[in-house]
Amino acid sequence: MRDRDTTPKGLSEVRALTFDVFGTTVDWLSGVAGEARRLGGLNGVDVDWKRLAGAWRALYMPSMDRVRRGELPWTNFDRLHRMSLDQVLREVGAEGFDPAAREELTRAWERLPAWPDSAPGLERLASRYTVATLSNGNRAQQTALVQFAQLPFQRILSAEDFHHYKPDPEVYLGAASALGLAPGQVMMVAAHKTDLRAAQAAGLHAAFVERPLEKGPGGSADLLPDPQSDVQATDFMDLADKMGC
Q: Which residues does 22 contact at the CB level (< 8 Å), separation at least 6?
């Protein structure tokens, strides 16, 4: 039974926390760069691997926008990344990857390291709340990543489940419905303020977790403070403290 005395003010109705994954829970930049470096070594390719990872990530939002506008039919995260990879490899001078290596490189997004506080923080939070992913990554990719990074999520929810990408409201509302909860019983946890503002617009609560090393769409991290969020934290352990876990 939950101890009401330690429930954060105004959040007694929250029953589940949904987490952004890329940048909030795992370090995509070092993970993708490291896997690209490994595969590059096998294929005789040597470039600025962090530049490759950043350029690849930068095409992610425009690719999703093409789906939103109807220029592409529903296309999942893996295929959007594979579609943009050829352009990125041309731009950074890494065209020595053969087709099989390019498919393998696309799976780099399944092998990303968690931030050091992610697993222990999630474990603490899971003692009191349902903890679930809510990522634009597709279900198979997220399942593989959660296993690789040994993250104790209890549910895996993906944009693929709703055929919409964040920040579309259908994703946040769909997640609440999938959890059997009202939007106000769910809190979105993210290091990206745009994600949190969209979740709040859909009726969810919001927790901002600062990730200073995360390179967002604008090329820099969102930083504290975030007074519009219900909770602000420096990492998942701090979030667990503030959520009474």
A: 28, 109, 112, 135, 136, 137
Show the tokens assigned to 79. 């295929």
CATH 1.10.150.240 fits 29-110, yes or no: yes
Q: How many residues are given for the chain?
A: 245
Residue among 36, 87, 40 nearest 60 (CA): 87
Question: Half-sphere exposure of 56 toward its Cβ, with a 13 Å CA cutoff?
Answer: 30
Helices (H), 93-216: 99-106, 118-125, 139-149, 169-178, 193-201
Q: Tell me the whole-structure pTM to 2 decimals.
A: 0.94
Judge whether 92 and 76 are in contact, CB under 8 Å.
no
Cis status of the peptide bond prior to 217, with omega within 30 of 0: no
Domain spans, the chain: 4-27+112-242, 29-110
Six token digits for residue 95: 């065209």
Give CA–CA dist 137/156, Å, rounded: 10
Q: Please list the alpha-helical segments (H only) found in 162-228.
A: 169-178, 193-201
As assigned by CATH, the class of the 4-27+112-242 domain is alpha beta
pLDDT tens per residue across span 155-183: 999 999 999 999 999 999 999 999 999 99
**Residue 84 contacts residue 105 (beta carbons within 8 Å):** no
Category of 238 on φ-ψ map: left (φ > 0), alpha (ψ -120 to 50) or beta: alpha
120 cis-preceded (ω within 30 degrees of 0): no
